[in-house]
Amino acid sequence: MCDCCSSEKDIYLPELATITKAEMMNQTEMFMHLEFDSGKELGHQAGQFVEVSIAGIGEAPISVSSSPQQKGFEMVIRNVGRLTNAIHGLKAGDKLGIRGPYGSGYPVDELKGKDLVFICGGIGLVPQRSLINYVVSNKDEYGKIVILQGTKEYEQRIYTEDLKKWDDIDGVTVLETIDVAHDSWKGNVGVVTTLIPKIEVDLTAAMNLVCGPPIMYKFVLMALQEKKVSHDNIFVNLERRMKCGVGKCGHCQMNDQYVCQTGPVYRYSELASVPEAI
Amino acid sequence: MSIKKLSKDVFKSFVDALIASDQQVIGVKEKVQAKGNRFAFDNLQSADQLRLDYDITLLPPKKYMLPQDETLLTFKVAGESKSKIDNSKLILIGVHPYDMIAINQMDELFSQDQQDNHYMTRRKNITIIACDVATPSKNVFASSMGTATVESGFDILLTDIGDAYVAQAGTDKGEKLLAKASGAVNASDDDLAKRKAIQDKNKDALNKHKLNCKPSDLPGLLEKAYDHPVWEEKAKTCYSCGSCNTTCPTCYCFDVQDQVNWDLKTGQRERSWDGCLLENFANVAGDHNFRKPREARFRHRLYRKGKYVPTKIGGQIACVGCGRCINGCIPDIANPVAVYNRILEDIKPD
Asked: Between 3.40.50.80, 3.40.630.30, 3.30.420.40, 3.40.980.10, what CATH number should domain A108-237 receive?
């Protein structure tokens, strides 16, 4: 097999996708919409991720933020490293390399008929949005939807229009908080767990979907524990260094779990024997 | 599959003929090192260089299936990438049974789920002439791990019976290759008896460190040892140098980085070895390290060998007892047998 007649799939070969829309959401987060040059659809499930690359800079795992039901796909990129810094220099019409989708998504069928409580911290809203958009478009199949969004500072808030749009939908409640008070902010101040007592649905009967920075899980899980929520009814979406995305390179491993294959979405009860998870 | 006997002269001519062919031939050579002579897999220019009486090579032969550095893709900067599959053929002579078993495990790991064609293409293009151990190395414990002899994976298996080698073909490829050894004769019952005696001896003798349980007990033992004091006891002198990873025949974790050429227009996406003992192994953007404590990284390696990787390869223990990690560890803490036996002092396997 040589370069020109390689017929077997190379799992490390990205496909080019063109950025069709790119805009800054705040000082550090860039929103973008992409479409594959080949015309194919990503075909992801809510909660999955892709490996994003610029040839010559590198590759990193990024969550898909859009519902599987729309054309193209969306991501939000925080400028935190060499690759993401380079991505922030791109604009509509530029291209990115994409591999995937990878990992397990949310169990959308199992969630049907249930009340859903999304607990998000910062850009934890980004992967959750793929599921939120899916369930609000198929609202008849789900119960009440509550979205808790906590952000460290006022200027860092993202998807503010989406939050407002969702809140306007019958049966959807959005509660937002910021950690640090701000003159322009009239809403709740405090970490995301301060919103939990304000939830009006029965948390023990609801499916609780948690995504945020590593430190947030411990406190949210403690708060849900106090509310006697069964670990079977909690899903977490974890961040790890998913370098290869295909269960080989070892970087994302937590105990015996390769997060790129069995995660990033896990039912919390399945993590009882995975002490490195939380 | 046939089993032949090759006198030492016949074997030497056979190897020289391979070297004269168009395939690259790799064998075990003695190399001058700063701390005295050591053995290593390297290009053979002549059969005289081949040392099948070696004890252990510095690095395992995995470097031919999974090179320290390899190009996965070539690309135009910020543009399209193309697969780069290495299609070169080579013959590898002198792979010890424990290293052969490690290669068999890696074959399974790289072909399962989504197949890695970079590894698998290399592997399919390598002809392996394995050999039974003639000189036990100072830290080998293959007998404890059940890896002192090997049944499969090799194309040909050699056993030095004194004045000759017994050569067993393990595959059709090996059978065809062995047919080219002019002067080879069918092995007699006496030759096979001599070979069996050597293999039986190795099953007990490659045991400089004795594991006080069956290898198959390890997953159950580790199930109960996560918070055992041994991790901190050992790891407190760990330099986090990763030598235990890089010298291990079953460690296969890797990193991928882009290299841009001098023209600044083209480049390569390159894979290189990585190691879970290195401090930044589980780092993510924002400098959050998911396995920062030394003892957690130390424990992870021993859990991968004894518990985690076995779940991916049908229960086989992913330590083959070569002892290279012991040879390479400056503070002398890497010995898996010492760690597992320390746990066995306090916890009994099921």
From this structure: 3.40.50.80
